Amino acid sequence: MFFITVALLIIMISSSWLLLHFHIKRKRLFASCLEMHEPKVRFLGMDLTMAVENEVQRFQSVWQMFLGHDRVFKHLLGPIMCIGVSHPDLMQKALAHSDCLEKPFFYKFVQLEHGIFTAEYKRWKSQRKALNPAFNMKILNSFIPIFADCSARMIDELSKCANGETVDMFKFTSKCTLEMVCATTLGSSALEREGCDEFLRNIESLFELIGNRLLRIELFPEFIYQLTSFHRKEVLVRKQIDEFAGKIIEEKWAEHIASNNNQEEIPNSKTAEEGTDGIRRPLIFIEQLFSLSNSSRPFTDEEILHNVFTILIAGNDTSGLGVAHACLFLAIYPDIQQKVYDEVIKHFPANLPLDADSLRQLEYTDMFLKEVLRHCPVAPTVARQNLKDLELDGVRIPAGNTLTFSFFALHRREDMWGPDAEKFDPENFTPERCEKRHPYAFMPFSSGSRNCIGGRYAMISMKVMIVHVVRNFLLKTELKHADLKYKFGMTLKLPFSHFIQVCRRDTVSE
Q1: What is the DSSP string of 94-140?
Q2: Which residue, 56, 66, 170, 55, is CA-closest to 485?
Q3: Which residues, 6+ apart, have CB-to-CB distance to 58 below 8 Å?
């Protein structure tokens, strides 16, 4: 009887495996004509490469995979087959396609499904339409004084160790950008209350935990992840973030209601955007969300909370990492640093205040920052899921498949950037070179309708920070460009610190 039971069990397992195998094979039949990227480690039809490589090796494997295929190919993410898209022609078609705007399941690890970053297509579409005006240039330019104040505080902190000491620049730029994001999202007072420093650390910890889960396919199933210490830590971090930010949101909501009541009682009173002196002040993001709650597309309390968290987390990493990378390239290339410094001093002598018009005059600095983002796109790899059938290079991709894109690899294609694609050269962004280049060869903030809504915000804040840094400090480093390696994650980070020697310019003989 025992042997019969065992035999039946083996037959059932084998039959189930065979049925699953044929089901998967049938689902993948559409991609039979596509070249398969062969995994380094394959077991039972799964790619286990990420399970055996370290985070630097994983990142290198991913971008080299995309550079190794010119247009479109198939690859595995564990047991999941994905369609890799490499050529800018096809990336343009897919990212701009109205039926390719859903995000795959692993974006749900962020657990902000009611915000624009990971929301399902229908929710995202209505939210994005409502939120676009909140990121127009008039509002973004009104944030420049806030960016300048936060940058000035960063300079004060750096000045304490600017006697030729070596520092981790990301620690300073990360704190500065988080102050910027908090001030423009929740209001400046958010950083003046007890528990602020812990809140900043928790934001960084949460992003690290999410990135760690993305690296480990065995943690994809929720029931497995919940058994780990990572999950327990994430629950604690999220709870502390919710408590700190939730209290501020409640207070802001109460202020918003009181302000509306006052305006109804006093018809000629100043609006929330205008101070008592008649000067319009920046309308911070949470106030704009509250205003939208009274519009034709009202935002729920949960949507407000998730969108605030989205801006805090994504906004901090985008600008903070970008400026840290920029400072490292300035230190590696003294001649480029001198050109940026000369331009800044020319347009901002004697620490003149910054404004939108004067920032636009920093043409070489703008080229430099774009070259930084070419080499270090903040989100190096993204994925989409097609809602309907999509055709790429004559291949019909059925709805529900995962498409992957590597901007890191795209920015290194020699057919787009020339034989010196690996060279750091701000001249890549002169008007003459840009005019001759494929319009989708450079995508630092993704592209299409579901691109990064805060891309222009990031560029302005980065430029303000760089202006403050270069006119106060001379940056040096022992690191060389060839030493720079990156690790796999949601954002592009070094596996080591951004070590830079910082010297005050008034103590350095030019």
Answers
A1: HHT-TT--B--GGGGGG--TTSTTT--HHHHHHHHHHHGGGGSHHHH
A2: 56
A3: 49, 50, 215, 487, 488
pLDDT, tens digit (0-9, with 9 covering 90-100), for 234-273: 999 988 888 887 787 787 777 777 776 665 554 443 434 5
**Residue 220 main-chain phi, psi, to 5 deg:** -60, -45
Backbone φ, ψ for residue 391 (5° rounding): -105, 125
Q: What angle do CA 152, 445, 84 make, to 5 degrees?
A: 150
171 or 326: which carries more pLDDT confidence? 326
Alpha helices in 293-362 (DSSP H): 301-332, 334-347, 356-360
Q: Which residues contact 424 (CB under 8 A, 6 or more apart)?
A: 329, 332, 333, 336, 371, 375, 481
104 vs 39 pLDDT, higher one: 104
224-234 b/e (C-beta count within 10 Å ≥ 16 → b) = ebeeeebbeeb
Please give the Cα distance from 35 to 22 (Å, whole number).
20
Q: Which pLDDT tens digit goes with each residue over 318-330?
A: 888 899 999 999 9
pTM for the whole thing? 0.87
